[in-house]
Here is the input.
Amino acid sequence: MTNALSTNIIQVRDLIKSYGSVPAIKGLTFEIGKGQVVGFLGPNGAGKSTTMKILTGYLQPTSGTVKILGIDVTENSIEARHHIGYLPENNPLYEEMMVMEYLEFVAQMRQIPKSKRRMMIDKAIHACGLEPAVRKDIAVLSKGYCQRVGLAQAIVHDPQLLILDEPTSGLDPNQIIEIRSLIKKLGEEKTVLMSTHILSEAQSTCSRILIINDGKLVADDTPLQLTQQEGGSIYVVVASNKKIQLSKTEVSRQLASIFGVTKVESIDEYKDAGVAMIVSYDKQDPRSDIFQKVVSLDWILLEMRRKEITLEETFRRLTKE
Ligand SMILES: Nc1ncnc2c1ncn2[C@@H]1O[C@H](COP(=O)(O)OP(=O)(O)O)[C@@H](O)[C@H]1O
Ligand SMILES: [Mg+2]
Here is the structure.
């Protein structure tokens, strides 16, 4: 039992949280193992920030348990927090402080022994590429540098686990790329749980994705698996063997008769006398059946390819009411 627990950095069981009579988290159970970089996705109001505040010991759950490295955060939040670095939503910083001053203040609050403070702060500064900003006031920093400061304060005590709430929100595209690659680098040494509503971010940064909707987990998978679930669509272009134009209605009727095909939509005119269709299916990829059908009708297959399902589409399907 103890062994099984020690491989889990986060263990969440039957977590429920209501604000007054309003339920926000409606029963979450999941585990995150050492070294994983996990994306926590969900629409606004899904419960991401609430979950993260409970995980970091800043908010009490209504019921359920959260263990960080086997330590119950409700019963022993101070000990659990030693192992956690937390970047809250909107990254609250003390604007009137200099970066160095702020990190010293955080190190002190984290009770890092005086003898080690300097070394640990320098390490965090270096890891976050903050050298050019150490003597500047936080108030004058760009949003990208503020996020670096937020990350530096999260890692200054060298925790095993990082919990980052929308770490790239509000950044411009260049800053997003910088912070994303910083998180990726931190993820080589630490377990990371980061929330985002930018799906491509989760796809490029995370090895696992949890999707939450209305306080419940609706998916837990790799980015690849999430985009390769059952169903999809095929782009097909066919033409007649003879010198005549095929009718869209006929092509549509023939393709719709194939087993597993759920919908056939014609799309705009195709040059070279072809008829172009999008064929949707719900289970097995019907490409070989489409090919057989086209051959049996003595038509020509000009083009056929599977349309990639994006994480966006998967997300929308899983989170719509
Ligand atoms: N302090 C609060 N008081 C009351 N309701 C809250 C509070 N914080 C969040 N909520 C509600 O809880 C739900 C989840 O919010 P939140 O965890 O912030 O979602 P997310 O971070 O996914 O956008 C929402 O319906 C939100 O309105
Ligand atoms: Mg939030």
Notes: The pocket of magnesium ion (ligand 2) is lined by residues 48-49, 89 (CB under 6 Å). Residues 46 and 214 are 5 Å apart (CA to CA).
